Amino acid sequence: MNPTNTIITIFGSTGDLTIRKLLPAIEKLLQEKLLDDRTKVIAVGRRDYTTESYLSFVEKELKVPFNTKALIPHVTYFKLDVDNQKDYLSLKQYIASISNSDTRKIFYLAVGPELLKGIATNIGESKLVEKEDLNATITFEKPFGSDLASAKAINALLWQYFDEKQIYRIDHYLGKEMIQNILTVRFANKIFESVWNNNTIKHVKIYAKETDTILSRAGYYDTSGALKDMVQSHLLQMLSLVAMEVPRSYNSEDLKNEKVEVLRKLRYDRKSLVIGQYDGYQNEPNIAKDSKTETFVFFKAFVDTPRFKGVPFYLLTGKALEQKESVIIIEFEETSEQHKWDLPLFTNKLYIKIAPQDGISLTLNSKVPGLRNAVEEVDLDYCVACNAVGNLPEAYEKLILDMTKHSKSLFTRWDEIELSWQFIDQVKQDIVNKQIPLRIYKNHQELYDLIYEMTGESI
Ligand code: BG6
């Protein structure tokens, strides 16, 4: 039970993120009594809704049945023009009228990148959030800029008005159950302590495959592409968690200090870089007929720390692929006993399965039952969802709950963003300077065959 009295003010209340993720997550937290009865949600928007008509709009948009019963009494619609400072002052007055000095105030900017700066400035100028008032915080979604320079500019603006402690940068992958579990699997198990290094790990694969195309996100996606949309954030976060050193403690700052060191030591092999665009992308509504935006990317990277020096990390993400699957596969070296066996043994693999099913599995060599002398690869498989009581929490439930508790472990710090952009900018530059070809793919196999030719690795 979290006894915090919280006001969550959401800018972008008619957008997809609010309707599909944030409101259902808050609803769930209320149902589970993880947010208390005093919680208020202020849905800010420019349209002319009343609270009632806003809630009907939400229900209609959701299409699937959504039980808003727990949420309804907590929501108020507040009309605001994001460019008009006076409206922010009215919002401030309204919030003052429903809060007290203990109230936790979260300002969640669920808006497109083009609105971030303006809204943040107005929130700062109107003192809706005052610097150093740790009870008032501001939350952003990615993308944080579109390259290092623009990310720096956004950040400079934020630091002008807010303390770093008040800024919550969301990478929703960090709220996923199995991403949080990476640390537990790594650091709470003796069996992995001595093998989590380049003596024993052969390579690491980090995949985030999607079957979806860009759906209705042309405007954003075409200026972004797979590298900026997925690698800069989710994939590099996964990589940092796998490759980081043992932190001094598991508190937020110590964890981030180690993740940042990984990003500092990250480099990639340009010759392994494959970028692709699904066939038909240029015919999607609102996409330029000659768009060169990549919807697929693969490369081999290295983390030059004593622990991981020489271990390839294969990163892959893309749209319109054969399956929706986010997974980390840690493959161990061949056993040193192989030469004494007259049959080939399998390498051990640890799968950290993030989506669609959360779970862990570890493969082992095992004797085939019976009289013949044979070895098979068996799977010690743990399905998290199958064993959870009730549904697993959605990433946003965890992230919102942590915000109410001032817990920042699952949010990204500025230096993580800075270093990841530095890396992505380098890759982007190489694509242009080295004229890396954009492969148009009709299906995933064409790309995977190419990757096999180039690196000898099968996907
Ligand atoms: C988002 C990207 O951050 O993550 C989307 O902008 C992508 O393009 C999505 O589809 C994938 O998230 P998930 O949780 O479905 O794996």
The helix/strand series, from N terminus to C terminus, equals EHEHEHEHEHEHHEHHHEEEEEEEHHHEH
The order of strands across the largest sheet is 14-13-12-11-7-10-9-8-15
General form: globular
Q: Give start-end ranges of low-pLDDT stretches.
A: none
CATH classification class of the largest domain: Alpha Beta
Task: Say how many strands there are.
Answer: 15
Note the gap between the termini.
44 Å
- Describe the largest sheet: 9 strands, mixed
How much β-strand is present in the residues? 15-25%
Structural class: alpha/beta
> Any idea what the CATH superfamily of the largest domain is called?
Dihydrodipicolinate Reductase, domain 2
Description:
Helices cover 37% and strands 23% of the residues. The protein is built from 14 helices and 15 strands. Strands 14-13-12-11-7-10-9-8-15 form a 9-stranded mixed β-sheet, sandwiched between helices. Helix 4 (113-125) runs parallel beside helix 5, helix 5 (148-161) packs antiparallel against helix 13 and helix 10 packs parallel to helix 13. The structure holds 6-O-phosphono-beta-D-glucopyranose (BG6). 6-O-phosphono-beta-D-glucopyranose is lined by residues 210, 229, 326, 355. Residues 210, 229, 326, 355 line the site of 6-O-phosphono-beta-D-glucopyranose (BG6).
